[in-house]
Write a structure and sequence with these properties.
single chain; 359 residues; 3 domains; 5-stranded mixed β-sheet; 15 helices
């Protein structure tokens, strides 16, 4: 018999899991019910006790236990439940699990538990409620309290509306209230997208795996956004298509160059810190990026010198004079040379290391 508390309400009152055995569970259930009598997990604990008592009387060899997860991070919650269930199975020699939960939120861990031991039954505890007006208000109050106190609900029901209200207030102070509805929809849409695709969890895991690369990507994104905004202003002031292209290239080149350089530099730092000999990939990328920045800058300067009435022939001549094709060819040659040299060095270094290991 296994009771699951994914959001670790039990841990909030100082009860540590896993809890094993009827005596320990009874003590924990009474303690939890005394401190949080309105929590649905109270019913789960006593239901688990009731079921294990019933099955024991019917002659089944049943043990009861309680596991819990994490109140904030769903990934940590699943991992903690998995580790605790695995420890129980190894310690008690369990060959089947009856899962007791208070709803779909806790039952999300069913696939995780099934990978450890077969689930023979699931008991969902449904708390009976009177339908009077007074009881309805009490129930609503409980949910509001849950939204305020539990971080995983507070982020969605308080955090997002708080951001919307703050942004609308700021726009009102700046005299730009006409954009309030658009900004509100944008914020809500981003929040829904993040929650729907679980991007918040993925970004958290991504940040944990490599903070340096994460910071570089954030800075790169900000740089490109600023570059696009500035380039759009220059494009609006352009008098011809040629000057528009030249202005956009001239403005965007340093921002894009910074973004790519930041990413390659961050990757190189991570590889150096981890002792990865393939850091030369990023060094080659930095060299080629520098060459492309110079080539694009030369192209923009050449196009800026053209008259507003320049025809296709003059544009083609200007492109050729900028030597951008020569720069592209040089970049290809550099990549080939660096790849060949560093691949040979890499193979030689690996051979030396293998030889030392054999000794």
């Amino acid at each position: 018999m296994l009771a699951v508390d994914v959001d670790d309400d039990i841990g909030r009152v100082g009860i540590r899991t896993p809890i094993i055995g009827k005596a320990n569970l009874l003590k924990a259930a009474v303690d939890f019910a005394t401190k949080r009598p309105e929590d649905s997990d109270t019913n789960v604990l006593f239901t688990a006790l009731s079921l294990v008592e019933k099955l024991s009387k019917e002659g089944y060899n049943v043990e009861v236990a309680v596991v819990s997860g994490d109140p904030v991070d769903p990934i940590k919650a699943d991992l903690r439940v998995r580790d605790q269930v695995k420890a129980l199975v190894e310690t008690l020699g369990i060959d089947g699990i009856i899962l007791v939960s208070d709803g779909a939120e806790d039952e999300k861990v069913v696939p995780i538990i099934q990978n450890i031991a077969p689930i023979v039954s699931v008991k969902r505890v449904i708390v009976e409620q009177l339908r009077g007006v007074e009881e309805t208000y009490i129930l609503i109050g409980r949910y509001i309290k849950k939204i305020i106190e539990e971080p995983r609900f507070a982020k969605l029901f308080l955090g997002v509306p708080g951001i919307v209200i703050t942004m609308v207030s700021a726009l009102a102070l700046l005299g730009m209230l006409q954009y309030a509805l658009t900004v509100a929809f944008l914020i809500v849409g981003i929040a829904m997208m993040f929650r729907g695709f679980e991007l918040d969890q993925k970004l958290q895991a991504w940040w944990s795996s490599s903070p340096i690369t994460s910071v570089a990507l954030i800075l790169s994104s900000i740089s490109i956004i600023i570059g696009v905004v500035v380039a759009s202003y220059y494009a609006q002031a352009s008098e011809s298509t040629i000057s528009l292209i030249a202005s956009v290239i001239n403005v965007l080149t340093p921002f894009i160059g910074f973004s790519i350089t930041a990413i390659f530099t961050a990757r190189a730092i991570v590889k150096i810190m981890s002792g990865d000999i393939r850091v030369w990939h990023d060094i080659a990328g930095l060299i080629v990026t520098a060459m492309m920045i110079v080539a694009l800058y030369n192209l923009s300067q050449t196009l800026n010198k053209l008259p507003l009435s320049a025809g296709p022939d003059e544009v083609l001549r200007a492109v050729m004079e900028s030597k951008i094709l020569l720069w592209l060819f040089a970049a290809i040659i550099v990549i080939i040379i660096l790849t060949t040299v560093f691949t040979l060095l890499e193979d030689k270094l690996i051979s030396i290391i293998r030889g030392r290991i054999k000794r």
